[in-house]
Write a structure and sequence with these properties.
The complex is a heterodimer of chains A (527) and B (234). In chain A, strands 1, 2, 3, 4 and 7 form a 5-stranded antiparallel sheet that branches. Chain A has a 4-stranded antiparallel sheet with strand order 15-16-12-19. Chain A is α+β, with helices and mostly antiparallel strands and 527 residues long. Chain A is built from 16 helices and 19 strands. Chain A has 2 domains: 287 residues, no CATH class; 175 residues, no CATH class. The longest helix of chain A has 16 residues. By secondary structure, chain B is an alpha+beta fold. Chain B has 2 domains: 124 residues, Alpha-Beta Plaits; 60 residues, no CATH class. Chain B is 39% helix and 16% strand. In chain B, helix 4 packs across helix 5. The radius of gyration of chain B is 25 Å and the shape is elongated. The chains are: A alpha+beta (527), B alpha+beta (234). Chains A and B meet through loops of A and helix 6 of B.
């Protein structure tokens, strides 16, 4: 019997990237708890409306898809404020206790990304008790011509907050348009010519290869390219414990989690980050190097990420104009037939087995750094400067990456009104879900995004997200590799500026429905 | 070849007993530790001035005490399990403790010893370069009061030497100035590649000649990466 998760016990946004399920807008609200008992009542009231991971439909065991969703998560201070006993609190991971601000050196949040430049809500967080972020609430809404569903959900939330206003307070201080400070963080998909897209503000399709793990019924046909790469070339779902506490992980162990088990099982950790995108810097850098790069500007843009900007075609499959044309033809056919499986296979079902030297997808490209698949198992190749797969090095092809996977949630925020300016209100709210923040998110951020040693790329950083410095003495570079048997020379991207800046965030715990009810009742008892 | 020599690299391990004394209500060993920790605050370790040092480490060893592990052999396990074994027999199988008679200054260094594989030249150069700083640290060790020159220092160190094989990872066995020059060339060449990409053959050849003349690959003394330098801005 295959593993079945208790979908009714797991919060919906852990298993679903709502954007993909036709919720194009979201609003994130953060609260401070002033009174423990009212705070618990508030959590109880919210819990009654929290969206679970249940299957949507009209079949048995299914419920109708809601017009808007509600999800909740808590910081360490929030859990403390809600009266979780100390013997439970000590079971949470040290980095979760510390919070994102204190981990800035590990995360590379320096220069323009350092906490003093964050939005006021995040700058003031963890400084005084009154300004501490305790509760996170996410509202996601469908689009409707007739009504403002997000507004409806927000009104509902404000109503619940009002009923508990002696115990909870909304924390403002999210930067919006023209420097306005708002009580919430809005996020929405990027529109292009009046049509919704899955793109972020640099023009890339985002979040394609989100991991798939065991027990999620609606991901059962999305395993290829998203699960873990197996020796025979097939794909298998990752172990549930990589993303949910209380389940066996890739090391066949239970991830470290607080007691009692009912507090942690089916819960997980979430990293909330507001990332500002410097569109003008990006455009001008791409223009400048696009003129010099042998393959032209669009290929260079694709090299930054590992996918073409127009349809997300992976460079491993479509490394040049000819193969791209062929890909586009197949992609169009699949789109015309609305063949989701075929589209998915085209976008996701690839490996780096035939690109071990990075000639197609560079080692510092976004998708190769975030999810290297089996590409880290390389040794010196036969030609100078080339690398090849060493299948004997590890038990499984994904041994070095399977424990570093992250579920990515969230949406872009703001709108780019002037592509020649960096300082507009535009970026991404990214929420990464994992069972171990240190092993998964922080490792990827520190070792794979801001450092290149695992990729034999010295200290080259990931091109898009790296905390680059254009300073002459410490300037960032990245090499765009070429095929080892070609006559071309590698292209070196020099003085890479900071394309993306951190504007705030923190670490959260997403409790299961059971845990939420127990927290609300004040009956968490590890003894 | 001795096990503490690998090619032209030498792994030196020195254990010098620190006197059991005190000064201003602080034990000598704690003074030594404190002085070593103050070295961290200096721009560079004094050891950066000691020629041909690849990597080195100082620490104060307070004590070691466990000689055997519980249940280290089959008999201990049997004794532990049997209910009728009298307590004195059971306790007899407990781990035996052994303590150091004093606290030790431990100095572990990897350096280029050359084909002759001896430590004399290295220690002599160390004494000449940082003799005063050596006295600051070793001055609290037994017998060091008789050390007044390089020969006496070499003799003292040989008495304290343990022929252990503590090699650090991260270095070849080439002379230090060759390694530093290689590091310098690698960095400069990366910059050259960035600054000159896309140029035609003639320009590239000309610029390379200029580059070559500037970096002087065969000249090990200059220009090069300074020993002990770990910051770009210096």
């Amino acid at each position: 019997m295959t593993k079945q998760l208790d979908l009714l016990d797991i919060q919906g946004h852990v298993l679903r990237a709502y954007g993909r399920f036709h919720y194009p807008v979201a609003r994130y609200i953060f609260l401070n708890i002033k009174d423990e008992s009212i705070g618990r009542d508030f959590v109880g009231a919210i819990s009654k409306r929290v969206t679970t991971a249940v299957e949507w439909g009209s079949g048995p065991g299914q419920v109708e898809q809601p017009p808007w969703t509600v999800n909740i998560a808590l910081t360490y201070q929030g859990l403390k404020q809600l009266g979780i006993p100390r013997s439970s609190l000590i079971g949470f991971s040290p980095e979760f206790v510390s919070g994102m601000k204190e981990r800035k050196d590990i995360l590379g949040d320096d220069g323009p990304s350092s906490p003093e430049h964050w939005d006021p809500i995040w700058r003031e967080n963890r400084e005084t008790r009154e300004k501490d972020v305790h509760i996170f609430i996410a509202l996601n809404a469908q689009f409707s011509k007739d009504s403002d569903l997000l507004g409806e959900s927000y009104d509902w939330l404000l109503g619940v907050i009002k009923e508990h206003q002696k115990g909870v307070a909304v924390l403002g201080g999210h930067r919006g348009d023209d420097g306005a400070l708002l009580d919430y963080q809005d996020a929405k998909i990027v529109m292009e010519n009046g049509l919704p897209t899955a793109k972020e503000h640099f023009g890339y399709t985002d979040g394609i290869s989100d991991p798939v793990f065991e027990g999620v019924p609606y991901d059962a046909d999305r395993i290829n390219g998203r699960g873990k790469q197996m020796e025979d070339g097939s794909w298998a779902p990752l172990a549930t414990g990589e993303f949910l506490l209380g389940h066996i992980d890739e090391a066949k162990e239970y991830p470290p989690a607080p007691n009692p088990i009912l507090l942690s099982r089916n819960g997980t950790y979430m990293v909330y980050r507001k990332l500002h995108e410097n569109v003008a810097t990006f455009e001008s850098y791409l223009d400048e190097h696009g003129k010099k790069f042998p393959g032209g500007k669009e290929l260079l843009a694709a090299k930054f990420v590992g996918r073409w900007r127009d349809n997300g075609a992976p460079l491993t499959t479509a490394p040049d104009a000819d193969s791209k044309a062929e890909f586009d033809k197949k992609f169009k056919e699949a789109e015309d037939k609305d063949d989701k499986k075929a589209i998915d296979d085209l976008l996701c079902n690839f490996t780096y087995d035939n690109d071990m030297s990075g000639g197609k997808c560079p080692f510092s490209a976004h998708i190769r750094r975030i999810n290297p698949r089996a590409s880290l198992e390389m040794i010196e190749g036969d030609k100078p400067g080339s690398l090849k797969m060493n299948p004997k090095a590890f038990d499984t092809p994904g041994a070095l990456s399977n424990r570093r996977r992250l579920l990515r949630r969230g949406l872009p925020y703001g709108e780019v009104k002037d592509r020649s300016k960096d300082n507009g209100n535009h970026g991404i709210i990214i929420m990464m879900v994992n069972a171990d923040i240190n092993r998964q998110f922080e490792f990827v951020q520190q070792q794979w995004i801001n450092y290149g040693n695992d990729f034999r790329a010295g200290n080259d950083k990931e091109i898009i997200l790296g905390n680059h410095s254009a300073n002459d003495k410490f300037s960032s570079k990245a090499v765009i590799q070429v095929e080892p048997d070609s006559d071309e020379t590698p292209y070196i991207l020099s003085k890479i500026p900071r394309f993306v800046e951190t504007r705030g965030g923190d670490y959260f715990f997403i409790p299961s429905m059971t845990a939420l009810r127990m927290i609300a009742q004040g009956v968490i008892d590890p003894t | 070849m001795a096990s503490n020599i690998s090619g032209n690299a030498y792994a030196l391990t020195i254990l010098s007993p620190i006197k059991n004394g005190l000064q201003d209500e602080t034990a000598y060993a704690d003074i030594v530790r404190n002085r070593l920790q103050e070295w961290n605050a200096e721009n560079n370790s004094p050891m950066a001035l000691t020629p041909d040092t690849y990597l080195c480490r100082f620490f104060v060893l307070d004590d070691v005490y466990t000689e055997t592990l519980p249940g280290a052999n089959a008999w201990d396990t049997v004794v532990d399990w049997l209910p009728f074994v009298p307590n004195f027999l059971r306790r007899w199988a407990w781990p035996k403790e052994d303590h150091l008679k004093s606290r030790y200054l431990v100095f572990s260094s990897n350096f280029y010893c050359g084909p002759e594989g001896t430590i004399d030249a290295y220690l002599r150069a160390m004494w000449i370069a940082i003799g005063d700083r050596i006295k600051e640290i070793w001055g609290y060790c037994y017998g060091f009061e008789n050390v007044n020159d390089a020969d006496q220092f070499i003799a003292y160190m040989k008495k304290c030497q343990l022929t252990a094989t503590l090699f650090f990872v991260g270095s070849t066995d080439d002379p230090l100035n060759e390694q530093l020059k290689a590091l310098y060339l690698k960095q400069e060449f990366a910059k050259f590649a960035i600054d000159n990409q896309g140029l035609d053959k003639t320009a590239l050849r000309n610029n390379f000649q200029t580059f070559f003349d500037r970096v002087q690959p065969a000249n090990l003394s200059a220009p090069t990466w300074a020993a002990g330098k770990y910051r770009l801005e210096d």
